[in-house]
Amino acid sequence: MKLEEKVKATIKKYKLCNKKQKILVALSGGKDSTVVLYLLKKFGYNVEGIHIDLKIGKYSEKCLEKIKELCREQKIKLHLYDIKKEMGSGMCYIRTSIQSKNKKGQIKNCAICGVLKKWILNKCAKKIRGVDVIVTGHHLDDESQTFLMNIFKGSPKLSANSGPKTKNILNKKFVTRIKPLFYVAEKDILKYSKEKKLPINYAGCPCAIDSYRIQIREFMRNLSTKKKENLMKNFDDMSEKISKNKDSRMSYCDICGEPTRNKVCKKCQLMSVC
Ligand code: AMP
Ligand code: ZN
Predict the structure, then answer these.
(1) Which ligand 1 atom sits nearest the alpha carbon of residue 52?
(2) Is the pLDDT reported for residue 47 higher than 80?
(3) Are 13 and 121 in contact, with CB atoms under 8 Å apart?
(4) Among the four 42, 57, 142, 154, which has the fewest Cβ within 10 Å?
C-alpha cells in the first residue's frame, strides 16, 4: 500500500482524528513530523504546529529554521515553546543536572528528553484554544524497536500505552496523542520527504546516544517491513489484554498538577533531583 493510503487507512481504522477537530502537530524539524504535518494538511485536516526549542546549539537553530519555512509554505500557525525562557536552561543543562544528581544510575538522554517533551506538549496543548489531539511523527521502526526493547527488558506491559492512539485515559487534563505514521516504515517516510522536497533537518539530534536503542536498531536493520508489521500485529493482539489488566485511573501530580498515574509525575520526579 502506498504511504498516503496507509496513513489514511490508519486514521480510519483507529479513528485517530476527524476534520472538525483542531489538531496540533508536534514538530521536531526532522522528516517524520514534517511528513505527518504535510499529509494531514493535504488531507484537509485543521492543523497547527508546535515546536519545543530545546536549545541544543546549531542543531536546534537548524530545526527551527526548517520548521518556520515549512509552516510558511503550508500556511500553518506555529506555536513555539522556548525551553530556556520557560524552564531557565537548555535541554543539555537540564539533562546533565538530572543525570549527575540521580543516584539510581544513569538515565538515558532520550528518556529524560522524552519525558520532558511529553509534559511540555500536554501543557501547551491545553493552553492553545480548542486543541483536540496532539500528533507525533512516531513510525513503524520507532514503535517496533520500542516494543522489542520492552520485551527484552521482560516488561511487555510497558507497551500497554503504546498504539496509534493513547487509550484508557479519560481525564480532561490529558490531551489525546495520536501517531498517524504508526504503520509506516522509516525508509518510506524518508523517500516521500525527498520526493516532496520538504524543508527538513536531516541531521539527527547530537544527544541521541541511547546505546540500547542503537543495538536494537542494528539487530532489526535487515528485517523487512512485513516482519516489522507482523511484530506490531502481536502488539495489537496483546495490547487489549495488557491494558485490561492495567489500572487506567489517573490522578494529578502533587507538584505540577498535570495528569499522572502516580502521586508525582515522571517529569517532576526527574526535576526534583536537580
Ligand atoms: P523523538 O522523541 O525525537 O524520536 O521524536 C518523536 C516525535 O516527537 C517527533 O516525531 C515529533 O512529533 C515529536 N518531537 C520531537 N522533538 C520535538 C520538539 N523539539 N518539539 C516538538 N515536537 C517534537
Ligand atoms: Zn508533575
Answers:
(1) 20
(2) yes
(3) no
(4) 154
Task: Please tell me the distance between residue 175's alpha carbon and the centre of ligand 2 in angstroms.
Answer: 15
pLDDT score, position 200: 98
Distance 272 CA to ligand 2 centre (A): 10
What pLDDT score was predicted for residue 106?
79
Q: Into how many domains does the chain fold?
A: 1
191 C-alpha to ligand 2 centroid (Å): 39
The CATH number of residue 262's host domain is 3.40.50.620
Residue 117 Cβ inside 6 Å of ligand 1? The answer reads yes
Centre of ligand 2 to C-alpha 263, Å, is 9
Strands 46-53 and 22-26: parallel
Rounded distance between C-alpha atoms, residue 212 and residue 112, angstroms: 15
* Cα–Cα dist 227/198, whole Å: 29
Closest ligand to C-alpha of residue 118 is 1
Q: How far is residue 11's CA from residue 17's CA, in Å, rounded to a whole number?
A: 7
pLDDT band at 101 (very low <50, low <70, confident <90, very high): confident
187 vs 173, residue with greater confidence: 187
Q: Is the CB of 26 under 6 A from ligand 1?
A: yes
Nearest CA, atom 14, ligand 1: 28
Residue at grid coordinates 522528516: 31
Domain range holding 237? 3-271
Identify each DSSP E strand in 54-156 by its residue range: 78-82, 131-135
Q: Are 174 and 168 in contact (CB under 8 A)?
A: no
Q: What residues sit around ligand 2, an ion, with C-beta below 5 angstroms? A: 253, 255-256, 265, 268
Rounded distance from Cα 261 to ligand 1 centre (Å):
23
Alpha-carbon separation of residue 85 from 26, 163, 227, 269 (angstroms) = 19, 33, 44, 21
pTM of the complete model = 0.93
